């Protein structure tokens, strides 16, 4: 069963998500600067609080062979060695910007849920989320339940707005 919500602006999840998105922007810019500086081709990365990992391209594997750890995670991520120039530079940047993990919606519920599919996003300053699980749960009062049709209309309208902006920018 999937349920859909709009989050009240004063809710903890809303505030944590907005903070995460602000931090995510800083992290993305920092990674972009390092990627340009060192010639990293990878577009998938994990910005750890002390170490940086990438899903290296074939060229990255060759270029950074001595700077990447040998262990490849199941997701394809490979961490830069902590003592490499890239590793040291990322550690200094991470200490300043403090990369955050995306808030896990299920941690904001009143019950423990071991398996769930969730999504969270912001449109026009409003944060929306959905939870799909077979487990019964209770949400905080700040989770305002909405109809699926309303939820998907928000997504559709935002996609239309984005598409219209793309068309307008090409003119």
Verbal overview:
Helix 1 runs antiparallel to helix 3. A four-stranded antiparallel beta sheet has the order 5-6-1-7, with helices on both faces. Strands 2-3-4 form a three-stranded antiparallel beta sheet. It is built from four helices and seven strands, in the order E-H-E-E-H-E-H-E-E-E-H. It is globular and about 55 Å long. With 171 residues, it is an alpha+beta fold. The protein folds into two domains: 2-12 and 103-170, no CATH class; 19-97, no CATH class. Helix content is 40%, strand content 19%. A hairpin with a 2-residue loop joins strand 5 (117-123) and strand 6 (126-132).
Spell out the blueprint of helices and strands.
Blueprint lengths: L1 E6 L4 H27 L6 E3 L4 E3 L3 H6 L14 E2 L5 H13 L19 E7 L2 E7 L10 E4 L1 H23 L1
Antiparallel strand pairs: 1-6, 1-7, 2-3, 3-4, 5-6
Give the tags:
171 residues; alpha+beta; 2 domains; 4-stranded antiparallel β-sheet; 7 strands; 40% helix
Report, as a whole number of angstroms, the end-to-end distance: 44 Å
Question: Can you count the beta strands?
Answer: 7
Class from secondary-structure proportions: alpha+beta
Radius of gyration: 20 Å
**Major β-sheet profile:** 4 strands, antiparallel
Total tally of structural domains: 2
Shape: globular
Please count the helical segments: 4
Element order, helices and strands? Answer: EHEEHEHEEEH
Average pLDDT over all residues: 95
Major β-sheet strand ordering? 5-6-1-7
DSSP strand (E) fraction? 15-25%
**Spans of 5+ residues with little confidence (pLDDT < 50)?**
none
Helix content: 40-55%
């Amino acid at each position: 069963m999937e349920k859909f919500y709009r989050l009240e602006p004063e809710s903890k999840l809303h505030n944590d998500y907005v903070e995460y998105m602000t931090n995510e922007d800083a992290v993305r810019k920092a990674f972009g600067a390092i990627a340009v500086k060192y010639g990293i081709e990878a577009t998938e990365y994990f910005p750890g609080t002390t170490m940086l990992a990438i899903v290296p391209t074939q060229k990255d594997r060759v270029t950074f062979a001595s700077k990447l750890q040998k262990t490849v995670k199941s997701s394809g991520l490979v961490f830069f060695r902590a003592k490499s120039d890239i590793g040291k530079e990322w550690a200094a940047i991470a200490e300043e910007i403090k990369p955050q993990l995306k808030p896990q919606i299920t941690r904001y519920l009143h019950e423990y849920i071991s398996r769930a599919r969730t999504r969270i996003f912001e449109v026009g300053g409003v944060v929306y989320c959905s939870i799909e699980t077979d487990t019964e749960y209770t949400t905080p009062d700040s989770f305002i339940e909405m109809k699926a049709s309303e939820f998907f209309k928000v997504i559709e309208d935002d996609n239309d707005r984005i598409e219209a902006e793309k068309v307008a920018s090409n003119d």
